[in-house]
């Protein structure tokens, strides 16, 4: 049996005035996702437990069949896994965004979708100025990741940590809000604020930033620390469910969840984790991966990014591209294997109205061997809500999808 999972990140939404009162899924022309529903079924899945924050880390764990209440330790350790950085039992990983906040408000949590090249230079300067030294019983290491998504590793010298009980704010959930009102709280508050403040001086006149300003791009004005956690322990997917998996994603966080489950990471040239990603290349690589793996997961970040930027038409466009270049070709390819199943499901909701992630169930579409057609004909929030199928908690869907 071949299993394919397509994740249009954050695609689930609410009716939007600019789209004539339709949700982006309703407004988009999605013949292939609709075909999945017609061949099979649709329904709702709730991937975010109320006690956790709605984001791709928690929601992706659920989507992949793991109870986040049992395995989730924080966002940064998952990204650290994707970057190939090992964490010891006393170590903590902390997400380190490069942000653009010249006036003390969260103008852009991506620093203008800074390139990995510019971001890498700035992170190297931060490591020289602030890393390689001890702070509160641990050694600081700053690592450059993809674009604005970087990591601070705190290597604990003993079992004690200042980060227990620390609460931090995801920068993408406070667009245009004052930084001072959304800083960390808990014992390590001053420690994190100290690093964030110090980063402003380091970045201020850095050549990479001056270059960006000259080119009309947003400079990264400081780092924003959040998403801290220790390394989680997770039982491999193959051991729990059977299939041998592979993951295609341009986002470290989502790749990291896959890697943690023991899935093979497949890198696609031209995959950017943004609206301009090479959709067709992702489709081609997924088709190729089906030859060697039982389960292939293709994640596309673009609908989530469009939501964060408050761009309804871009969100629709991203969905149509996923439909045409990924779901379509794969739906043609899968029957060649005889026994197959496909699942289309976002991790969480990201609403254009708030430009932030939201709690609540997301619609899924599933088809393939053993999944009987139910008469539903479209992939959207409303049709899914009318289905008798609902998975809450969402991590129980995987067992159903795999036919276990
Ligand atoms: Zn998001």
Description:
The chain is of the alpha/beta class and 404 residues long. It contains 15 helices and 15 strands. The chain has helices spanning 24-27, 31-39, 56-63, 68-71, 76-82, 116-130, 189-204, 207-214, 237-241, 252-260, 279-292, 302-308, 312-333, 381-385, 397-401, and strands spanning 2-8, 41-45, 92-99, 134-135, 138-146, 149-156, 222-229, 245-248, 264-265, 295-300, 340-344, 349-351, 356-358, 362-368, 390-391. The strands form 3 sheets. Strands 9-8-10-1-11-14-2-15 form an 8-stranded mixed beta sheet, sandwiched between helices. The longest helix is centred in the last third of the chain and has 22 residues, at 312-333. 54% of the residues are buried. The model has no long low-confidence stretch (mean pLDDT 96). Zinc ion binds at residues 10, 172, 304, 308, 350, 357.
Radius of gyration, in angstroms, nearest whole number: 21 Å
Oligomer: single chain
Number of strands: 15
Query: Level of helix content?
Result: 25-40%
* Poorly predicted runs of 5 or more residues: none
Main sheet, how many strands, which sense, barrel?
A: 8 strands, mixed
Order of helices and strands: EHHEHHHEHEEEHHEHEHEHEHHEEEEHEH
Number of H/I helices: 15
**Strands of the largest sheet, in order across it?**
9-8-10-1-11-14-2-15
What hetero molecules are in the model?
zinc ion
Average pLDDT number: 96
Q: Based on helices, strands and strand pairing, what is the structural class?
A: alpha/beta
Query: How would you describe the shape?
Result: globular
Secondary structure layout plus pairing:
Layout (H helix, E strand, L loop, with lengths): L1 E7 L15 H4 L3 H9 L1 E5 L10 H8 L4 H4 L4 H7 L9 E8 L16 H15 L3 E2 L2 E9 L2 E8 L32 H16 L2 H8 L7 E8 L7 H5 L3 E4 L3 H9 L3 E2 L13 H14 L2 E6 L1 H7 L3 H22 L6 E5 L4 E3 L4 E3 L3 E7 L12 H5 L4 E2 L5 H5 L3
Parallel strand pairs: 1-10, 1-11, 2-15, 8-9, 8-10
Antiparallel strand pairs: 2-14, 3-6, 3-7, 4-5, 5-6, 11-14, 12-13
Zinc ion (ZN) binds next to α12.
């Amino acid at each position: 049996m071949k299993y394919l999972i397509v994740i249009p990140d954050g695609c689930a939404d609410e009716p939007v005035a600019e789209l004539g009162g339709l949700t982006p899924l309703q407004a988009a022309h999605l013949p292939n996702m609709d075909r999945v529903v017609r061949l099979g079924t649709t329904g709702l899945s709730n991937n975010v437990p109320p006690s956790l924050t709605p984001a791709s880390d928690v929601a992706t764990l659920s989507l992949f069949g793991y109870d986040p209440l049992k395995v989730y330790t924080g966002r940064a350790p998952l990204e650290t896994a994707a970057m190939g950085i090992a964490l010891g039992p006393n170590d903590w990983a902390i997400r380190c965004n490069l942000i653009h906040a010249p006036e003390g408000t969260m103008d852009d949590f991506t620093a203008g979708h800074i390139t990995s090249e510019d971001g890498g230079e700035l992170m190297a300067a931060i490591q020289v100025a602030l890393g390689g030294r001890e702070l509160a019983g641990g050694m600081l290491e700053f690592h450059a990741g993809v674009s604005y998504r970087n990591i601070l590793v705190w290597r604990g010298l003993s079992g004690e940590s200042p980060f227990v009980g620390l609460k931090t704010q995801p920068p993408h959930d406070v667009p245009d809000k004052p930084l001072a009102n959304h800083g960390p709280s808990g014992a390590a508050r001053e420690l994190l604020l100290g690093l964030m403040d110090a980063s402003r001086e380091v970045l201020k006149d850095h050549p990479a930033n001056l270059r960006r300003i000259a080119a009309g791009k947003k400079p990264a004005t400081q780092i924003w620390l959040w998403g801290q956690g220790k390394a989680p322990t997770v039982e491999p997917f193959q051991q729990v469910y059977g299939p041998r998996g592979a993951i295609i994603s341009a986002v470290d966080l989502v790749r990291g969840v896959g890697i943690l489950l023991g899935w093979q990471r497949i890198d696609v040239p031209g995959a950017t984790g943004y609206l301009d990603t090479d959709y067709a290349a992702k489709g081609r690589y997924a088709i190729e991966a089906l030859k060697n793996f039982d389960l292939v997961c293709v994640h596309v970040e673009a609908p989530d990014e469009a939501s964060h930027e408050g761009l309804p038409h871009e969100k629709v466009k991203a969905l149509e591209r996923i439909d045409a270049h990924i779901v379509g070709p794969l739906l043609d390819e899968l029957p060649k294997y005889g026994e197959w199943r496909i699942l289309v499901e976002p991790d969480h909701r990201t609403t254009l109205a708030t430009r932030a992630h939201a709690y609540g169930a997301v619609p899924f579409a599933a088809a393939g061997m053993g999944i009987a057609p139910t008469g539903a004909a479209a992939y959207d929030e409303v049709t899914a809500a009318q289905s008798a199928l609902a998975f809450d908690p969402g991590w129980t869907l995987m067992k159903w999808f795999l036919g276990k």
